[in-house]
Specification:
The protein is of the alpha+beta class. It is built from five helices and five strands. It starts with a strand and ends in a 16-residue tail after the last helix. The site of zinc ion (ZN) has 7 residues, from loops.
Length: about 140
């Protein structure tokens, strides 16, 4: 039997016993190893994963983690919505107001489009009862 100190990608360390180094390599390759603390299957020999120690040291205190995760979660959701819209829609750029109005008036076939519109254009579209929704704004991108 040989002994390795193993670590997962969340920096939990634990002991692993193997028949041989080949046995360890085989289990690692097949993804049979998992962290007893968090269940992560990203396992490496402790000493061979220097980035693990770094990430553990840099983890911020409790309150900040919660806030950070919540923000990251919201940002992810917004991004998913945006990605969904932009994946299935045509980018008409500055012609958005014109195209939206044409669809509303039945001049062209309705489809999913997105683009940019000025405040005045948005106002005019709203007054004319044209249905559209603003794309979610992602805080990251405004910087
Ligand atoms: Zn773990």
């Amino acid at each position: 039997m040989i002994h390795y100190t193993l670590a997962c990608d969340k920096a939990h360390t634990f002991d692993g016993w193997f028949r041989s180094s080949e046995d360890y390599a085989r289990q690692e390759k097949k993804g049979l190893l998992s962290c007893p603390v968090c269940g992560s299957a990203k396992i490496g020999k402790g000493l061979m994963a220097p980035n693990v120690a770094t990430s553990a040291e840099e983890a911020p205190a409790g309150g900040q983690v919660l806030l950070g995760e919540r923000e990251a979660h919201v940002r992810r959701l917004l991004k998913e919505v945006r990605d969904e819209v932009t994946r299935n829609a045509e980018n008409v750029g500055p012609r958005f107001a014109e195209v939206a109005r044409q669809m509303h008036d039945g001049e062209i076939e309705k489809s999913s489009v997105y683009g940019i519109a000025s405040k005045d254009e948005v106002q005019a579209l709203r007054e004319d009862g044209v249905e559209f929704h603003p794309l979610p704004h992602i805080p990251d991108e405004s910087n």
